[in-house]
Amino acid sequence: MPDISQLETLFPGFMTAMFVTEGKMLTPKERLYIRIFVRLVEKAINEYKKARECIISQVNETQCEVEVVKYPVHVIRLYTFGIIDHLENCINAIRRLFKLLDSVKRERGGLNIERTLRKRIESHNKEINDIRCVVEHIEGEIQKDAGTKPVMLALTADDEGIQITKYNLKFEDLARLLAHFHKLALQWLDDYCKIPMNKED
Predict the structure, then answer these.
(1) pTM, 2 dp
(2) For residue 168, which phi and psi values (nearest 5 degrees)?
(3) How confident is the model over 102-112, as pLDDT tens digits?
């Protein structure tokens, strides 16, 4: 699971934008959208980091225990519900970010997004949406006979991502997506702080 500790908190920039500037280059709706967007980016990143910390702790603990007792493979591969909770929270926050992104695009105000960055973000929209929908409607998937496939978020067999029923998402892609959202949040905070040029009389 990639380390994303280099993605620093957005809180200082958020506080500066909200209390020092007025966001005069943005529409009233954009000023509200950006508040929610930055908070959700921060939440998604924090949940990812917490899930990673839980996995590292679990692996370290399991390695220590295995030296004493030879647990079956299926027991060694059990992970705490806390990991699942953090990953679900991360996915939920990202799904909301995609919806906010759509709202901002429809607003056509002062919040801009560079085309390449937008494409990189949107390339993961379907993966996130598929997993989020299954998590939310897992009862229906069980009724369809999920068989032996995971019916709650779990690590893939190679430990390189997460899966639920027939859907999966690599941690590398998830970390990259969070980095893209973090970059966009920083750009939008800059947009919020821009001062409009005075018009000549």
Answers:
(1) 0.85
(2) -145, 160
(3) 999 999 888 98
